[in-house]
Each structure stands twice: as C-alpha cells, then as structure tokens.
Amino acid sequence: MRDLADSIESMEQLATVWRTMVLDRDPQADVRDLPGIAVRWADCRFAFWNCVTLTDVGADAGLLKQRLIETAEIMRSKTHAGFLWVFEDLLDPQARAGLGEAAEQAGLRYAFAGTGMAGDLLPIPDPVHPELTFVRVTDDDLLRAYADINARAYGFPLDAGRDGLAGSALWKSRVYAYLGLRDGVPVTCAAAIEADGRLFVALVATDPAWERRGYGEAVTRKALHEGARATGLTRATLHATAAGAPVYPRIGFRPNSPLRFYALGD
C-alpha cells in the first residue's frame, strides 16, 4: 500500500518546482495558491509550463467536482493550452472512481497518464555509457539543443520548446541540466534542481530516433550524480510519463501516486 505522505510530497514538489520554473519564464506568471488549487501558469507555448494541480487531501466527490469546475474556468481564461495534474491518491475512493466522469462534466478531457516517484537513493555513481559523452548546459546553444530534444520527444513544435527554455539564466546556473551526446550530437537530456531539501528530476527526454538504447537512464543518472555531489542531498523526486516510468525504478525510485493529466475539451 502506498504511503499518503509520499503522494503529498509529490504534489508539493510539483507546486514548488513549477513555481520556480514559470517565474523564470515570466516574472509576472500566474502562481496563485487558491483553496485546493495551485496555479503555476506561464501562459507560454511550452505547455508543460502551464499547469494547475489539485492540492486538497482526501477530497470527496462533491469537493472534487467543485475544484474541477474552478480549474476549467482558470484554464479557459488563459491564452495558451496547458494541463491539470491530478494526484489520484489524494482523492477519497469515491472521488477517485468518479474522476473521469466529473472531469468530462467540467469540460476537461483526459490527456495522458503519469506516476509520481521518489527515493532516498543518492549519491549514485558517476554513470558511463559507451555511446555517450555528457555535457552540462551552460550556454544558449546547449540550452536550445535541450529544448529541441524535449520538443521532438513530446511532440511539440520546436518553437514551443524553445519558448519554454531559451534564454533562461536559471537553466544555465541553478539547474543541473545535462545533454548526452552521441558522436558530438545531442540526443538525450535530463535535469535536476534543488527543491525543499530534495533533488527534483525534470524534462527527461530522448530524441525519438535514438530511443531504447539506455540513453535516458544514463543522462538521468548523470544529472542526479552531479546534483547530489553539488548539494549533498540524498532524496530525489520526479513525475514520470507512462513511457518513462519503467526506467526510474532501476535507478532507485519508488512509485507513489498515479497521475492523470487533463486538458480543456474541444
């Protein structure tokens, strides 16, 4: 049985890290903490920086319905599309069972699934992959390459990926962001950032042409190794897509709350 405290940690890590990320993108971004709802919305073309999450613990079906209606109204007020993140284990059993129907009634459509994960796994050894060399993102060209890999991996236009990261001082300093290069060409990437005494892993991606070679795991290990070495932290958290979820337990992460992502309906 999963520990509810881990699910709360996962939700709070999202709210903490995304506040930093969207304010980096736009100092005037919407980062309100409303009753039961955390808004973290940069309103940019990179949809992952446009986020709302539900923060009530133990919400029943009636409260969930109210929060979903409120969330849909917030999302409709924005220029660019984004996602509602729902940590299923924060809902009571009845609310969890009726989540899909309640979301549809609020005008939200299911987009994809994910999983929150965490582990007391650091430090880890400096990784070696026979086909890769690793380089930290320290300039705009490397950051653009990082953005482009994410855009290709998640199906965004290249200009949308660049709108989320290009020109960021944060990503070239406080974020331990690494590229994996194959024959000098960036093919995979991962990042870790300190958040409330943990390292949070973000925006792990591999160019679709180079998947299933262990690149994503290797570069994630690199970001964690360097982040832990610099900070001395021992605990790490992340949110995985369904495609990436099998990778992280091999590093030492344990799943906590299942996630559902919703977008506005057509």
Annotate the secondary structure layout.
Layout: H1 4-25, E1 33-34, E2 37-41, E3 50-54, H2 61-76, E4 83-87, H3 93-97, H4 99-105, E5 108-120, E6 133-136, H5 140-154, H6 158-165, E7 176-182, E8 185-195, E9 198-206, H7 215-231, E10 235-241, E11 254-264
Parallel strand pairs: 3-4, 9-10
Antiparallel strand pairs: 1-2, 2-3, 4-11, 5-10, 5-11, 6-7, 7-8, 8-9
Q: How far is the N terminus from the C terminus? A: 37 Å
Q: Assign the structural class, choosing from mainly alpha, mainly beta, alpha/beta, alpha+beta, or little secondary structure.
A: alpha+beta
DSSP helical segment count: 7
> Which strand order do you get reading across the main beta sheet?
1-2-3-4-11-5-10-9-8-7-6
Order of helices and strands: HEEEHEHHEEHHEEEHEE
Describe the sheet with the most strands: 11 strands, mixed
Oligomer: single chain
Radius of gyration: 18 Å
Q: How many beta-strand segments?
A: 11
Helix content: 25-40%
Could you say which overall geometry the principal axes of the C-alpha atoms support? globular
Query: Are there runs of 5+ residues with pLDDT below 50, and where?
Result: none
Beta-strand residue percentage: 25-35%
- What is the residue-mean pLDDT, rounded to a whole number? 96
